[in-house]
Amino acid sequence: MGHPVFDTASVVAALHGVRREWREAQQRSSEPGGREFPSRDALTEVVKSLKGVLFPMRLGPVDLRQESEDFYIGYTLDAALHALAAQIRLELRLYDSSKPAERLQAQAQSLTTEFAQTLPAIRRLLDSDVLAAFHGDPAARSVDEVLLCYPGILAMIYHRLAHQLYSQGLPLLARIWAEMAHSQTGIDIHPGARIGSGCFIDHGTGVVIGETALIGERVRLYQNVTLGAKRFTTDAQGHLEKGQPRHPILEDDVVVYAGATVLGRVTLGQGCTVGGNVWLTQDVPPGAHVTQANARQERAAPASVAQPLAFNL
Known about the structure:
By secondary structure, this protein is an alpha/beta fold. The chain has helices spanning 8-25, 40-54, 56-59, 69-95, 101-117, 119-136, 143-149, 151-167, 171-185, 292-300, and strands spanning 188-189, 194-195, 200-201, 208-209, 214-215, 220-221, 226-228, 249-250, 255-256, 261-263, 267-268, 273-274, 279-280, 289-290. The protein has a 5-stranded parallel beta sheet. A 5-stranded parallel beta sheet has the order 3-6-9-12-14. It has a 4-stranded parallel beta sheet with strand order 2-5-8-11, with no helix packed on it. The N and C termini lie far apart (81 Å).
């Protein structure tokens, strides 16, 4: 019995037509050329290398010896930065395809150099996150266990790196890294969110942190916490306005327990605690404790006569 013959030619032709329709609708060029968009596969390898660069004896190669750390870091970092620069150049070209190739290359190299210079500061921030998890979880037996096992720490590694790219005007690369973390941990942190040192995301599954959220130092979040937007402003044409501050502000030492939902540009004051499954859309004063019982007042009262929450201080 011979090999089956499939009619691939008709499928190829049909897919060509679909792609042409899409490019015409999106006003994209149909001219022959190389890859237009950054590669998820390439960025996966870059972030894998960067994890080893940041934590060589824990997230680096299995046979690495401590006396060879600097050699490994130098070699791996150089390769990772060259690969990252190529992806940065692709994103820059998306924004301005008319810019000469040599200018794109120079800009990509400059941005990559800037990114590399932030890695020591990122490592210090991650050390503070690891210590926060170790001291905040009685089940943690060592900082090594935290680094190797805790999804919240993995999510923070991705976020610290992605946020740096986002801050340098590279939102697409940053978002790709953020979505990699999301798929691996169930923790969805937009790379635009600003998170202070010593952040501990315990368990983590289902945590969502929006783009414009501001999180202070030593903040602790549990699983299924949402720091989201309450409403979205639109322009005169009805299109969503991008980048407007619409997510919560959490000051230092705030704790938000499992299942809590905090929506809108509200402020949770320093040292306050939000209980499990609370639905919150207004400010909380410093040191206050919000539980389901007092938060329910806001939902029960009609909008026109809604009363402020009776916080436990």
